[in-house]
Amino acid sequence: MLDWTRELEGRLAPETVDHLLPLIEAATAPGRHGDWPRWQAALEQLPDVNSSWSIENGVLVAGDCLASPNDLNTLLSEFIPWRKGPLNLAGVPIDTEWRSDWKWNRLVSSMDLTDLRILDIGAGNGYFGYQMLAGGAQQVIACDPTLLFFAQYLAIRHFSGPVNNLLLPIRFEQIPPRADFDCVFSMGVLYHRRDPMAHLRAIMDHLRVDGRLLLETLTIPGDDDGELDPPDRYANMRNVHRLPTVTRLVRWLKAAGYVQVQPLDQTPTTVDEQRSTRWMPFHSLTEALTEEQALTIEGHPPPVRTTMLARKPK
């Protein structure tokens, strides 16, 4: 496990460190999750290799290749399902559910990340944080309360070595705002919030003056100022709320106080970008759509992900 005091000091203000330490300890305490002991045991058995990392054709490659990776393949299978990637850990290729590199490629040309201090909300296993560092970011503080994703992050970091991409296993709302991040990424989070305006305003509190928000979320088609609030599930997902049109999303951002709001990308999610694999062998997008893929199985418009860029005013 990480030495959290050492990891946090120098990255965050002392009072923020004091606030976070007991929250992190509680999040990773024995009994917090029934599978946590199993994941910890797998982490402790990971082989020692020369640590390094790079992004190669969208793949996060970490650690020198093992001569015989069979045992490592078995250990890494303990962390299934792997959702964000693709990855290659010490010579073991992990074909994740999402081709997250495709999403990154749609965004990377729109932003200069050089020397930025970034907050990554809902970061999963930290894949995008490595992409941000490769794009020139100075430091990434990430958060995601899902312990499986934190265990995956620890496995990746075992092979990459220490990096300025620190994943906190807590909720975004638990991080005290200090208005000192140059940029906040919130990707795949907003539609899980019953009150999207509260999420957008909370992000504002973490941004420095003139700081940027990169927001990626599900939207529905149409030029009107409308939204869909699925009564049960959306594309087999629970906890999906208030899917706006782009017009309404722009209005939300402006109402939350953002300026220079601009759409960067709007791309339908395909079964080539999100799918079942040997490393995520459960239902994925194919099972969430009708046979013609024209609607979700609940009868809603199929998923389209829209990315917006906005600024905190000066």
Overview of the structural elements:
It contains ten helices and 13 strands. The strands form three sheets. The protein has a seven-stranded mixed β-sheet with strand order 7-6-5-8-9-13-12, with helices on both faces. Strands 1-2-3-4 form a four-stranded mixed β-sheet. It starts with a helix and ends with a strand. It is globular and about 55 Å long. The mean pLDDT is 97. Helices cover 29% and strands 22% of the residues. It is α/β, with parallel strands linked by helices and 314 residues long. The protein has a single domain, classed as Rossmann fold, CATH 3.40.50.
Q: What is the CATH superfamily classification?
A: Vaccinia Virus protein VP39
Topology pattern, helix = H, strand = E: HHHEEHEEHEHEHEEHEEEHEHE
Largest sheet: 7 strands, mixed
Instruction: Supply the helix-strand structural class.
Output: alpha/beta
What descriptors fit this protein?
314 residues; Rossmann fold; four-stranded mixed β-sheet; 10 helices; globular
Write the layout of secondary structure elements.
Elements: H1 4-8, H2 14-27, H3 36-44, E1 53-56, E2 59-62, H4 70-77, E3 87-89, E4 92-94, H5 100-108, E5 117-121, H6 127-134, E6 139-143, H7 147-160, E7 165-168, E8 181-187, H8 196-204, E9 207-219, E10 227-228, E11 243-244, H9 246-255, E12 259-268, H10 285-288, E13 304-311
Parallel strand pairs: 2-3, 5-6, 5-8, 6-7, 8-9
Antiparallel strand pairs: 1-2, 3-4, 9-13, 10-11, 12-13
Helix pairs in contact: 3-7
